[in-house]
Amino acid sequence: MADSPNTQDLALRAIDAAAQAEQLMRPEEGRAVRPSFTALYQYVHGQRTQAWDNFAEVMRMYPDVAANFEHLLQNDAFATMPQLAAAAGEAVQRREYDGYVLMTTESRAEPDQVYLSIETGVDLVDLPHRLFMKTIDESWYELEIPPMTNGRAQIVLDKQDQAVHAFGQPDTVLYIR
Amino acid sequence: MSITVYILTTQGPVRIQRITEEQTGIQSVICLDGRAQALPISSRYDAFVRNPTGVIERATGHGAYRVDVDQIIDDGDSWQLGIYIAHMVDGRDQAKDIHIFATGEVDRDLNIRPVGHIAEKLDRASRLFIELQDKGEDVYVFVPDGGTDDFEGGHLSKLAFVEHVDQVFDHLKLSRPQPLSQVGNVERGTPSRTPKGRRFLLGGLPIAFLLGWFMWSPFVWMGLAGDGKVKELESAISDQGPTFMGRYQQDLFFFVQDLRRPEPTSPSLSGKIILADSPEACDSTAPRRGISWDESVPASNIICEIIVRADNAETNSVLVGRMAYWPKGLRQDNTPARTMRGSANPNGHTWTLGFEDFPNQDSIVRLVILQGRVAPVGSQPWYSDLLSELPTSAAFIAAKARIERLGYHVFVRDWQRL
Questions:
Q1: CA of A117: which chain B residue's CA is closest?
Q2: Tell me: the pLDDT tens digits for B70-94?
Q3: Taking the C-alpha atoms of B72, B109, B250 and B254 in order, what is their torsion angle to the nearest 10 degrees?
Q4: Dist. CA A22–CA A1, nearest whole Å
């Protein structure tokens, strides 16, 4: 190691830079793969049932991907539920917009679980298959909507599920696709 | 002492862990072992519970349940007999523990229909049968009559072949379940379900408070009806349940609704169809001609568009409705090719539908019009059946009755190319 403090600092900085460069060059283990625009398009249109392993992680990691994804949803969603105007302090349990009603109901059998029901009398042509949620802090969550019967579908969720928390926030935007 | 019910499956017996009445608004669901995991058969279970398709609500007066089971059931309907028995014995006390194993489908008349793989299902459960019998516990096995020639069941003293659910309860020496209509709509089931507390209140509180309490729900329902929140209104009335007081509150509400309901005056309908000589001409600015929808269309013409207007002769009411297009005829596809909400006009409503898949002799355009004091808002699930089913079908009649009960008149008109 060089004696001069300046030389030492310079060497340390060089090592850090080399490590950073190596890290950039090496494919990161565990890092989610960036989905292509084609994959996003196919996912939004139901042509792919699963585009990537961890939807929330990918949206968080690639903000430009999230922006493209939202743009596609804004064009093609069956229903878009904007932020609620009311500054409600309590968690929201019901959303109604564009002919869709979404509602959470606590289970009597398992009070730490909720039923999220999705009901519509509108879109008979093409049934919705996914619910996407974007929170105020740009976090994204998705839920698969099971096949509807008589315009209704229902999902059982743990209360602690982040998607349930996101649904309850009045400033969360919901997309049904 | 308890009654444990198992569903016989080809993967082994599935134990029903518990049945819980859930809030009325939810769909009945079968979950795995208390987890937030609904089994794929849940939607079929909901239909099995709910009136008018199902049999459980008819017997218990409640239409939303959660069942927890200890193993997955993937498919089929042979779980119905076990689930039915479990509902009917839920909350009943027994002198000793008994275990019931069952497979079979249950129809609307409570007949038990044959199912497949019975020998295989019994074989998969045989070890458990023997374990329970060795402990000296009562084991009953119910399978549909017929189709089990290849299974002897020699080690099962209480293997019964049954054709109707009544035979199950006769074997168990339990009273047969009765539909609510045959027991005077008195709530049955566990003590916790019986509104004894409400009966106590009837005798114990001042009349003024009682009247206020009695009127509160009808008052809230009228508010919902006045806002056109018909789905919420339906749920609120249903939540009240078939209790003693609830029935009177419902009767009062429906009586007032009948008084306020507008006279059923058929709307005046006028329809026009827009014709062109070729598909290309439909999209161009070339001249097109319109004729009445009651006129026959020359075979050489293409129908580009249909415009229907409904004028309301009843001034104290509003008209709303939807139009659906079925290119191959009603229900020939899973869903209509197009559905239109139409637009409100002074004293009426107009629907305009441009065709992409041009109508032929089989095609049907159905218009469903609702007439009421206020326009319904929010979700309206009854449209699905009203727009797709034959008017003589049970589904259509049920959907029509459902919305009429809430203060609306329903008018339907089908158009076909002449």
A1: B26
A2: 999 888 899 999 999 999 888 777 6
A3: 120
A4: 22
Instruction: Please list, residue by residue across B16-52, b when 16 or more beta carbons sit within 10 angstroms of its beta carbon and e when fewer do.
Output: bbebebbebbbbbbbbbebebebbebbbbbbebbbee
The alpha-helical segments, DSSP class H, found in B39-191 are 42-49, 56-60, 80-89, 118-134, 165-172
What is the torsional sign of CA B251, B257, B259, B262? negative
Angle between helices B196-204 and B244-260 (to 10 degrees): 80
What are the CA-CA distances from residue B9 to residues B74, B107, B327 (Å)?
10, 19, 42
Q: Which chain A positions have a beta carbon within 8 Å of B20's beta carbon?
A: 107-109
Of B65, B75, B71, which Cα lies nearest the Cα of B105? B75
**How many Cβ atoms sit within 10 Å of the Cβ of residue B348?**
20
Q: Of B225, B232, B212, nearest to B253 (Cα)?
A: B225
What's the ipTM? 0.74
Domain regions of chain B by residue span: 3-183, 196-260, 268-415
- Is residue B22 within 8 Å of A113, Cβ to Cβ? no
The beta strand positions in B138-183, using DSSP E, are 138-144, 159-162
In angstroms, the CA A22 to CA A98 distance is 50
Q: Helix B196-204 crosses helix B207-226 at what angle (to 10 degrees)?
A: 120
The alpha-carbon gap from B362 to the nearest alpha carbon of chain A, in Å, equals: 19
Q: What gap in Å lies between CA B64 and CA B50, rounded to an integer? A: 7
Which chain B residues touch A157 with a CB distance below 8 Å? 36
| A146–chain B Cβ distance below 8 A for any pair | yes
Q: Are strands B138-144 and B159-162 parallel, antiparallel or unpaired?
A: parallel
Q: Residue B64's closest CA among B34, B32, B39, B30?
A: B30
Cβ-nearest to B31 among A117, A152, A156: A156
Rounded to a whole number of angstroms, the distance from the CA of B30 to the nearest CA of chain A is: 10
Q: What is the pTM of this model?
A: 0.57
CATH topology of domain B3-183: Ribosomal Protein S5; domain 2 (3.30.230)
Per the DSSP assignment, residues forming a β-bridge with B339 are B324
Chain segment A121-165, per-residue pLDDT in tens? 765 567 788 999 999 888 999 999 998 887 889 999 999 999 999
